[in-house]
Inverse folding.
């Protein structure tokens, strides 16, 4: 019965071709496992590096779903003897995971409140109907909002606004490719640069804070804002200027689009008590982050916000459960566990030393070489992996690259937001891409200038502003 | 606006009540012999129990409240709470819920149906015994809700085809559906992987430094209870719902027709079973080293990488809220132990028992078992074990017997609809009444307590 | 206009459906029929939902679909609606999940533009409230209930007019009883009353009750207006003025052979919550259908 019939053979072949990267990763893993451990690295350290390599291969090629990769990481950590099941499960969870869970749920709750129309009205009031002004407005609002509520929420809120403007400007999407590109990229890139502004801008910032704490360097919510927010404010006009220069929109004024948008939005009912309370709850959460996050933790506060929304009945658990991306949470936990074990097994230090060995001579000669290496490495990884996985894995390594761990860590966290180049680099990019109005290759076309300029500015900023004021 | 607020208040009156209770308790000073953290943990326990029983807010919201309160009341740091939230037991619950989704969606239920009918023939009493035995046997390995979900369509096909309308088959419906639900509830004690609560109890036993029980040892202790309960349960159910149809000829025939339409066994089905057997072997031989949870996750990983289940389906059909709640309950249980609250409650309880009689060993056992049994009918079984476990393990006596009995008693969820997912699933068919649970359940409850007593003291 | 009819079971929902559709026709309203099943404990939601998906594969309908199907067929047989069966319709009864515990039900092979079918699970008041908010219904029609609490909650929390079909016997002759006073809801109540009277082709008894012997200016004005509207609509009516406690008088006059139509109370909701209101008291004690207009 189990003899291979033609059909089952065909099925097997199909499976193999579908999952070839999965098999290749496993083969690479086995090969590495059989090789001897390099000098200066513990056995556990070497094994964790094997897990990192195979997991990275799988994340990039995605032969199996991302949550399955997360499970793979956890399982391998136990099987290769890096920790007992209890230790691994504890390392899976920390306040940062609660934060990501809470903020994903907050995002669902916020998107449901229908604030997008009010935001639209606000933007238009401020910018008028010149395309250039609107692009700037979109970048600025996306950046400012995303520094508080996470880039994917902002992208989801802003996308319909931009789509409305585009649709009403011209029915034929062929005629407004330039306009679509400039507006959508303004949203995506605005959201990305904004997400570095505060710790709550993204899960990766929270991970980095946790790593810094492990190094005995604690940075508060306000401290983070003071260090990074000026950079956001610098980047906003620059990014919007680059976008305006590199993509030429078909229309310089969006008269009809703006008018139609205003008409549509003004149909909204009056602000009800419900809306006010919803905003108020979010405001409370923000205040909590600013003033209480030291003692209560960012995650606990985010969860409190979700709890309040649930109690007030603004959002149903069914909706939260369905629309929250649980796979992301699991992956997040798994990468955090991986990061913690990279550090604990000494693999981080060893890898950092390797980097220093290779680039050591350059680092000594050029002043910003370390920063440059970190920023470029992080940016590249952030464009192929997810930004939080990048920080979770790279963080422990970069913190060991020099003496000023705080500086190095912050630079890593900031650079991990530069997922400008690919459509899958960051949730904000994917959301914008999902509208179907921009092509995948547009990202590289528009993104490389923004990326290069951002990298240069970050390096300059970190070595001037921080060294002068902090 | 005002009306909305009144509506909100009436809907959430138990939330308001729980908060008031919490504030009152907070303002009363801690009883002697209990640390301030321990007392605060108890406040959270009381509030959580009120909220879970009356469900004024969604259960995951209760879980979040537990986590937040632990931080707010200074019982632990944010990271400490987060770490205590996750353990191998929670991985296991997550893994087994996902495994259930993966297994159920393969459509193995029709194969199961054929197997049962082949074994039992068409006499109603034989079918009932078959249903109970198969449900119990299967659910001791793969979790009760999985089994109930697979057996339900089989049972319903039999019921719908053996009478003209609901009234004529009411008794039969009760009989068959309850044999599925109670069968799977009884079976879930058989092995550690039968339910998340068993894993939680194993985790506590390890934490308390009680002997480490292996998978096979657990089976050796628990399976006799199971085997004894099966015929007794069949008798009880038979005499509670005496059906008018003693032979289910046409219904069985129709079931066979329905099943044979499915065609021969497909490769996917074989693969599904193979992977599950693999997971089971992993549980038996490796669980003491790599943990039950990790092995369950391996199963999920294999199902996903062989493309037998898509992540979207898992994401949609896994009960994430329950996972969060159980994580929070485990975290609460651990903190009850760490703050000494569990010890204080156990000690106080023992002192009360001493008032009744000097020899507390039997009373202690009965209190633990009956209390667990009752709570499990109001809360859920895993939450019950998570909260009661640390207390029971602190009561003294043979901790192995006590802990074990608690884990088993938490399966006695016979009395209410909300007691366990199995009870809820059969209720959702619309064929059994809420009162039926009490009617059949109390006999089952007493029977189970005595069987447990008998076995745990003389085995 | 949009009407919502809540059905519970085959035995008790027949009069509700009959009266509901008759009234709906008079208003030319689109009708939605909703069935609220028992609440599913949250510990088990996913498992139950998943089991139900399995059951669909075995071609079992969810509990409630049966009732909705019966209601649909009942309406079709009694010529309240005209369903069309189409070949491109669903091959079996199909449920479309539209958020949380709400499903839209599409019956096998038929369509009907006049009626939507909704299946919900949960506390009946909470589900109706949510459904009304979601659909913006004008009137909610529901069968009578033995529980007093239920009447209270219906009036207090459902944000639409409410028609409680209490003890309706289709073979009995009914008159319409329309209490008229100076409250703000009265004109709308009169309007609705006229429509209903036309639909059932019955006589209208207007009644104005005062606690004292003298009838204030507001009362006389309101009653004149009501009479005028009835006259214009060409409905047989008579007008009576009575003294006494309004609730008692209305109850006594209504007996068991009237359909009562009255405006909702305009009292402060908090006050209403604790002391109740006129319509509530009438509803609790009357043995006849009652429409409360909001």
């Amino acid at each position: 019965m189990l003899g291979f019939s033609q059909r089952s053979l065909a099925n097997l072949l199909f499976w193999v071709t579908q999952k070839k990267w999965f098999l290749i990763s496993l083969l690479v893993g086995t090969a590495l496992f059989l090789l001897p451990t390099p000098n200066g690295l513990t056995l556990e350290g070497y094994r964790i590096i094997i897990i990192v390599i195979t997991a990275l291969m799988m994340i990039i090629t995605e032969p199996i779903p991302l949550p399955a990769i997360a499970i793979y990481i956890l399982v391998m950590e136990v099987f290769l003897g890096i920790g007992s099941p209890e230790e691994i499960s504890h390392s899976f969870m920390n306040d940062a995971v609660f934060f990501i869970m809470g903020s994903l749920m907050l995002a669902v709750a916020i998107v449901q409140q229908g604030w997008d129309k009010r935001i639209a009205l606000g933007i238009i009031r401020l910018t008028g109907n010149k395309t250039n002004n609107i692009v700037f407005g979109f970048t600025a609002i996306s950046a400012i909002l995303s520094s508080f509520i996470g880039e994917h929420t902002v992208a989801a809120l802003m996308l319909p606004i931009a789509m409305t403007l585009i649709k009403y400007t011209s029915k034929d999407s062929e005629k407004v490719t330039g306009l679509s590109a400039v507006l959508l990229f303004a949203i995506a890139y605005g959201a990305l640069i904004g997400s570095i502004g505060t710790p709550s801008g993204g899960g990766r910032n929270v991970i980095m804070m946790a790593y810094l704490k492990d190094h005995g360097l604690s940075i508060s919510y306000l401290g983070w804002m003071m260090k990074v927010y000026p950079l956001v404010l610098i980047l906003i006009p620059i990014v919007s200027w680059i976008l305006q220069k590199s993509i030429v929109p078909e229309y310089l004024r969006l008269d009809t689009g703006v008018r139609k948008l205003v008409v549509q939005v003004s149909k909204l009912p009056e602000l009800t008590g419900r809306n006010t309370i919803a905003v108020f709850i979010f405001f409370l959460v923000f205040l909590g982050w600013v003033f209480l996050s030291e003692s209560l933790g960012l995650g606990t506060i985010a969860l409190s916000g979700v709890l309040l929304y649930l109690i007030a009945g603004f959002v149903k658990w069914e909706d939260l459960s369905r629309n929250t991306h649980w796979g992301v949470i699991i992956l997040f936990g798994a990468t955090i566990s991986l990061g913690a074990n990279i550090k604990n097994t000494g693999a981080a230090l060893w890898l950092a030393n390797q980097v220093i060995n290779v680039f050591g001579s350059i680092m000594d000669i050029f002043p910003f070489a370390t920063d440059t290496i970190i920023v470029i490495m992080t940016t590249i990884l952030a464009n192929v992996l997810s930004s939080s996985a990048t920080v979770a894995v790279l963080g422990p390594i970069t913190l060991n690259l020099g003496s000023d761990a705080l500086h190095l860590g912050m630079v890593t966290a900031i650079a991990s937001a530069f997922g400008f180049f690919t459509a899958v680099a960051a949730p904000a990019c994917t959301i914008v891409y999902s509208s179907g109005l921009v092509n995948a290759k547009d990202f590289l076309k528009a993104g490389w200038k923004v990326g290069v300029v951002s990298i240069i500015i970050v390096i300059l900023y970190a070595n001037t502003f921080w060294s002068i004021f902090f | 606006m005002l009306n909305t607020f009144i509506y909100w208040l009436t809907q959430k009156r138990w939330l308001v009540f729980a908060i008031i209770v919490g504030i009152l308790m907070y303002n009363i000073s801690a009883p002697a012999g209990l640390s301030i953290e321990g007392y605060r943990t108890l406040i959270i326990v009381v509030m959580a129990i009120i909220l879970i029983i009356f469900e004024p807010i969604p259960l995951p919201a209760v879980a979040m409240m537990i986590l937040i309160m632990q931080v707010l009341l200074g019982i632990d740091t944010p990271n400490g709470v987060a770490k205590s939230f996750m353990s191998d037991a929670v991985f296991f619950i997550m893994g087994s819920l996902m495994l259930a989704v993966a297994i159920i969606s393969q459509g193995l239920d029709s194969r199961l149906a054929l197997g049962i009918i082949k074994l039992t023939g068409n006499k109603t009493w034989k079918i009932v015994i078959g249903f109970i035995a198969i449900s119990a046997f299967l659910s001791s390995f793969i979790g009760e809700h999985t089994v109930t979900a697979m057996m339900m369509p089989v049972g319903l096909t039999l019921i719908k085809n053996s009478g003209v309308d609901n009234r004529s088959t009411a008794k039969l419906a009760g009989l068959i559906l309850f044999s599925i639900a109670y069968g799977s509830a009884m079976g879930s004690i058989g092995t550690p992987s039968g339910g998340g609560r068993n894993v939680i109890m194993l985790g506590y036993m390890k934490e308390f430094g009680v002997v480490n029980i292996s998978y096979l040892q657990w089976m050796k202790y628990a399976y006799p209870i199971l085997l004894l309960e099966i015929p007794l349960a069949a008798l009880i159910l038979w005499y509670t719902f005496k059906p008018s149809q003693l032979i289910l000829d046409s219904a069985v025939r129709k079931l066979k027709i329905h099943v044979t339409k499915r065609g021969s066994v497909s490769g996917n089905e074989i693969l599904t079973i193979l992977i599950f057997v693999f997971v089971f072997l992993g549980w038996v031989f490796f669980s003491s080293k790599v943990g039950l949870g990790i092995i369950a996750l391996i199963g999920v990983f294999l199902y996903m990488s062989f493309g037998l289940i898509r992540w979207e389906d898992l994401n949609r059909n896994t009960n994430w809220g329950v996972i969060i709640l159980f994580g929070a309950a485990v975290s609460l249980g651990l903190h009850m132990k760490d703050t000494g609250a569990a010890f204080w409650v156990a000690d106080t309880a023992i002192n009360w028992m001493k008032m009744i009689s000097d020899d507390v060993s039997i009373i202690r056992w009965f209190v633990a078992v009956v209390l667990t049994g009752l709570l499990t009918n109001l809360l859920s079984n895993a939450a019950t074990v998570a909260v009661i476990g640390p207390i029971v393990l602190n009561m003294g006596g043979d901790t192995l017997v006590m802990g074990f009995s608690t884990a088993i008693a938490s399966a006695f969820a016979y009395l209410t609809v909300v007691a366990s997912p199995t009870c809820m699933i059969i209720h959702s068919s619309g064929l059994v009444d809420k009162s039926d649970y009490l009617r059949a359940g109390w006999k089952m409850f007493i029977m189970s307590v005595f069987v447990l007593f008998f076995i745990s003291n003389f085995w | 206009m949009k009407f919502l009819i809540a059905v519970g079971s085959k035995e008790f929902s027949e009069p509700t459906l009959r009266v509901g559709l008759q009234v709906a026709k008079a208003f030319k309203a689109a009708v939605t029929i909703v069935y609220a099943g028992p609440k599913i404990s949250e510990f088990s939601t996913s498992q139950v939902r998943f089991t139900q998906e399995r059951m669909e594969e075995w071609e079992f309908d969810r509990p409630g679909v049966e009732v909705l199907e019966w209601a649909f067929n009942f309406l079709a047989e009694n010529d309240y609606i005209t369903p069309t069966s189409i070949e491109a319709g669903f091959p079996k009864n199909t449920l479309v999940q539209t958020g949380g515990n709400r499903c839209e039900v599409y019956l096998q092979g038929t369509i009907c533009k006049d009626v939507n079918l909704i299946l919900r699970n949960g506390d009946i008041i909470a589900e109706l409230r949510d459904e009304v908010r979601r659909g913006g219904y004008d009137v909610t029609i529901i069968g009578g209930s033995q529980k007093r609490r239920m009447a209270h909650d219906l009036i207090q929390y459902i944000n639409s007019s409410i028609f409680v079909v209490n003890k309706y016997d289709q073979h009995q002759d009914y008159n319409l009883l329309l209490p008229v006073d100076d409250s703000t809801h009265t004109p709308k109540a009169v309007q609705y009353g006229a429509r209903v009277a036309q639909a059932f082709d019955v006589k209208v008894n207007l009644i104005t009750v005062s606690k004292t012997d003298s009838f204030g200016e507001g009362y006389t004005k309101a009653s004149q207006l009501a009479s005028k509207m009835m006259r214009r609509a060409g409905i047989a009516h008579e007008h009576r003025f009575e003294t006494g406690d309004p609730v008692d008088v209305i109850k006594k006059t209504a007996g068991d052979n009237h359909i009562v139509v009255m405006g909702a109370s305009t009292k402060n909701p908090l006050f209403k919550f604790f002391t109740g209101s006129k319509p509530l008291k009438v509803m609790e004690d009357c043995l006849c259908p009652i429409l409360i207009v909001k």
